[in-house]
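=== Structure Prediction Worksheet ===
Name of assembly: unnamed complex
Input type: mixed (protein and possibly other molecules)
Chain count: two
Listed entries:
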Amino acid sequence: MAYRVFAMQQPSQRPRWWWWLFVAALAAFFITMPLHLELFVILEMSRFFGLAMLALSMGFLWGFGGVLSFGQTAFFGLGGYGYTVLALNTGATTGSVFFAIAFGMAGAAVLGYFMIYGRISEIYLSVTTLVFTLILEKGVRATSGDQYVIGTVRLNGQNGIPTVPQLKVPWNPSVELDINGFFYVGATLLVLVYLGLRLLLTTQFGRVIVGLRENERRTELLGYDTRRYKLGAFVLAGGVAGLGGAFYAMSIPLAHPEMFSLGRAADVIMWVLVGGKSTLIGPIAGVFAIEHFKGWLGTQGVGQVTLVLGAVLIVFVLVFQQGLLPTVGMLPEVWRDRRQVWRRILALPRTVAAVDWGVDELALLLVRRLARLIPGSASRSGRGRT
Amino acid sequence: MLEVRGLRAGYGRIQILDGIDLSLAQGTVVGVLGHNGMGKTTLLRTLIGELRAEQGEIRFDGADVTQLGMHRRARRGIGYVPQGRDIYAQLTVMENLKMGEMVRGGASAIAEMIEYCPILEPLLERRGGALSGGEQQILALARCLVGRPKLLLLDEPTEGIQPSIVEKIQAQLQALTAALGLTVLLVEQNLQFIAALAERVLIIQKGRIVTTIAPEQLHDKAVVDEYLGI
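=== Predicted Assembly ===
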């Protein structure tokens, strides 16, 4: 099952019964969580849902569209601030969530239009989105004066806006959702966004997005207005990030310039790479794994959490290039080829002993050998799976 | 169907096409022959809009398409199968075919194309990158034809393909052109291949069409030596 769900599904194929079963199991897992988990864990999980939506937006855009955008944190921040400011001004939380999505999409549409229709290359697109995020962060941090007020809401610069309104029951706005209710809404939204993006990949739009990643020129030659499709994907991912931002701001509860930060942008890359950027479920798993790991490191008194996470990222980039879930999905294949894997492991010391070059060559050889042991790594192809 | 007048194009300061004039009537298969670097591929890339024409006019189906972008020309009915096939290696054969639906495709067009290219039928679930060179070429051709182009621009379909497979591609192309009544501009280095398919052959030298010959003349060593120096 794991093999099929994580590693074997083509993006544009309609999901099979076992995929639906997997989604149902995931939903059931979320439904039963509040029944047996401590309050602290429920609160943490609720925070992760917002981050997971951010990771999904990046996973969709990068893993399937081939666009590495650091701007997802910008749209995440725009969503968080957009929700907070509107909800504080109007008191309408449900409408403000939709506004957060629209705000993220609008930001992505404006930025994306100039980048994509300006036909800037992929690397400059990444740099531009990074600069956009940093400009927004600096801009929001500079709003500490009394004059920076939208309606009745002070932006508070570095300190952010601490009074983020909690989500209310849409049909009864006088009632705020309790912790469990908020958890369920977050889980439902996350599953729906995942489902929506997964099903979108089976449509012509999804196929074209994957086609853009594979070969943009060829896709245009087949009659597709590639810029429009690319912008569409960028705007959609901006909306998902905006939704994540709104949900994250509610969960902490704080709308803070850190949402736009370089550190957050790096976090997203890490979640997606560690979870597996060739899948949609991978980025979600990456958030839960990395954020939980961060928390665990904190409880163990590890001071240099960033250093440890950096090391983890390097290991994944060098050895588990497909990410955690696709690698787990390949385990049956490892088991099947276990004799060959063992032979390679046993041959490793002999190969290393034969090396008489410099240290750099040895490192290169080790990394390559290690990578070859792992299915789904450099020597294997695994793009475009869900 | 296609009228080209005084077409000039190139790469930056390097001019490759130096005033191309040609016309293609509907349902004809015309070959283009010439040495490497004479502008054969550049001609096709300019016709599809991948390269901007610096001068001249391209009229397709009576309309001036010189300033149109690639996707707009494709939607008007110009199909292009480039050198090297350019299939989507990570997508399955079926997904590749579905990508060709944009212009005037649909499920029936795909089914029909599979019928015309039975070699693809057992490969539908296989990834494009796992196919042999010949299979990839037929897939590239079928994917383009799913969109029912009125004009097909074919760039060296036999490049890098072993001789026995070239014959299959030739047979496949002959069957398709006959069945669909295609208009084809075929750039090719393989003389036998072009002689078997084309009704006339344009010789391109230094970015100009210097003469038109009949395909039978390609068997004449003197003609080949004169224009192609082979």
